[in-house]
């Protein structure tokens, strides 16, 4: 999959995406000389075989255009779209026929210039259900991976205007000290719940997405202390602070709230308690005063569970090399087991 970046109609992105779709089984190569022929699985457009004479990458480029249109229209109409397996309880795929029809009408009005397979388009305009079923299967692998890895899919956001959006796009990690682990995917809330069930006191903060109640598009992030006494904006779209992707960081609010909390945790140094920092990322590190305080907590005596960006230099890279830090990758197949293991290790060291 593209490295967490927004899908754009660039050769590199489309090539990477196409290769991934081929390897995931969304497409099947067929026998043929010259230009490769591909058959789309579950395709009903060109008969039972669903064979296409267009190059796979060009075909995927067409799908990007159509799916972008559909996702945007879905969002604007308040329709949620989360492709994946039908038995996945997390999927909330409300396939509104009205949205389909609107999408198809819009695509037809744009004409064959947006499609590589002009002959097929002119001979048989796409039927909404069949086409979007195929499109969903083609991009579903990317979208589902994005959801599982907490990567944003910016076309779900009506305010998205194009360009790279690397904000929170990289895989997240858990940094843990002493006998604990550092892992991908944000599971610290579940770990916190397990610790609380075990009667372990926890101090620290978490970050939480802020979404528009009507469009469900992400507008920013809030910082919340575990005791609930602090709840301040961390970043917002359009805020005149240091920029991280589309978001302006609310430095004053962050420093006024998070820094005293870090100082208090260091000064109190409560025995038998666990420190949770969600997270050490690009937004938090826009504050030069945050870094030394975070380092002091990470190198302290208490067990510490920290969400940290997988990629990045400077303090992010240095924190991963601190003595006692262990890194463990969490995948969709082991993420639930990791929650209990991390919680157990934290309990042992608290």
UniProtKB/TrEMBL annotation:
<feature type="region of interest" description="Disordered">
    <location>
        <begin position="25"/>
        <end position="52"/>
    </location>
</feature>
<dbReference type="GO" id="GO:0005524">
    <property type="term" value="F:ATP binding"/>
</dbReference>
<keyword id="KW-0378">Hydrolase</keyword>
<keyword id="KW-0547">Nucleotide-binding</keyword>
<dbReference type="GO" id="GO:0017111">
    <property type="term" value="F:ribonucleoside triphosphate phosphatase activity"/>
</dbReference>
<dbReference type="Pfam" id="PF03266">
    <property type="entry name" value="NTPase_1"/>
</dbReference>
<keyword id="KW-0067">ATP-binding</keyword>
<dbReference type="InterPro" id="IPR027417">
    <property type="entry name" value="P-loop_NTPase"/>
</dbReference>
<protein>
    <submittedName>
        <fullName>Uncharacterized protein</fullName>
    </submittedName>
</protein>
<dbReference type="InterPro" id="IPR004948">
    <property type="entry name" value="Nuc-triphosphatase_THEP1"/>
</dbReference>
């Amino acid at each position: 999959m593209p490295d967490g970046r927004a899908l754009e109609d660039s050769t590199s992105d489309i090539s990477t995406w196409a290769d991934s779709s081929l390897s995931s089984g969304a497409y099947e190569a067929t026998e043929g000389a010259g230009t490769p022929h591909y058959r789309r699985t579950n395709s009903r457009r060109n008969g039972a075989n669903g064979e296409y004479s267009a190059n796979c990458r060009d075909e995927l480029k067409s799908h990007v255009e159509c799916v972008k249109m559909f996702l945007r229209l879905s969002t604007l109409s308040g329709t949620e779209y989360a492709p994946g397996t039908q038995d996945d309880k997390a999927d909330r795929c409300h396939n509104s026929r009205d949205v389909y029809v609107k999408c198809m009408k819009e695509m037809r009005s744009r004409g064959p210039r947006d499609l590589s397979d002009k002959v097929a388009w002119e001979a048989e305009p796409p039927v909404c259900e069949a086409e979007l079923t195929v499109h969903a299967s083609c991009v579903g692998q990317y979208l589902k991976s994005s959801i599982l890895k907490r990567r944003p899919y910016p076309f779900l956001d009506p305010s998205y205007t194009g360009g790279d959006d690397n904000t929170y796009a990289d895989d997240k990690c858990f940094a843990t000290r002493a006998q604990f682990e550092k892992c991908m995917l944000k599971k610290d809330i579940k770990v916190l719940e397990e610790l609380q069930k075990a009667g372990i006191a926890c101090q620290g903060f978490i970050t939480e997405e802020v979404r528009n109640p009507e469009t469900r598009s992400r507008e920013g992030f809030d910082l919340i202390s575990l005791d609930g006494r602090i709840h301040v904006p961390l970043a917002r779209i359009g805020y005149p602070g240091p920029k991280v992707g589309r978001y302006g960081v609310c430095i004053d609010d962050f420093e006024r709230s998070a820094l005293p909390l870090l100082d208090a945790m260091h000064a109190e140094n409560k025995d038998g308690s666990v420190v949770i920092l969600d997270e050490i990322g690009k937004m938090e590190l826009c504050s030069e005063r945050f870094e030394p305080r975070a380092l002091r907590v990470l190198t302290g005596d208490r067990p510490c569970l920290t969400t940290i960006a997988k990629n990045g230099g400077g303090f992010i890279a240095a924190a991963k090399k601190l003595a006692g830090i262990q890194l463990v990758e969490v995948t969709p197949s082991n993420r639930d087991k990791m929650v209990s293991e991390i919680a157990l290790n934290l309990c042992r060291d608290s």
